[in-house]
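Appendix B, example 12.
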Amino acid sequence: MSVMRPSADLLRCYYTGESVQQVQRAVDLLKPGTPPIPTAASFDQQFLEARVFVNLLEFRNCYTHYPFGIAAVNPEPNGITLQVESEERAAEILLNLLPTYVSDQEVHGVPGLRITRRELTAVELRVLGTSTRLRLAGLPATVWRKAVARMISKTVSYVVSRTRRL
């Protein structure tokens, strides 16, 4: 009796949450013999992706429909795109990823990470001085603007409360 094994494309769908059409387009762009989930092209990109997911794990403080509030991941050799599930989760992700200086001389977030571009349905983040790329996508531009404003508001209120305690 033979056991049917899922194709590599189908496995990528399971692991990333992408649609079958997205996976087929992405895999068609890869060179023959390349794995369906490409490895990062540089050590800096690998390090950024690791830091992003560590921060998502460490600072997760709300219930989400999808793991970490990420509906799908689109991995590419030179970057990664995370499809964010909601405005609330977008603000929380930005708050936990963008570096924040706290009065006790500790920096929270990914050092050097900045929003470098805003698009219609995404924001692009890069670590200064590197060729890394992280896109947070899946929400309209107006929602991203609100998420950034919420993140700034939370950061300011956190810093003010910490300063008052000192």
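The mean pLDDT is 80. The CA atoms of residues 103 and 163 lie 7 Å apart.
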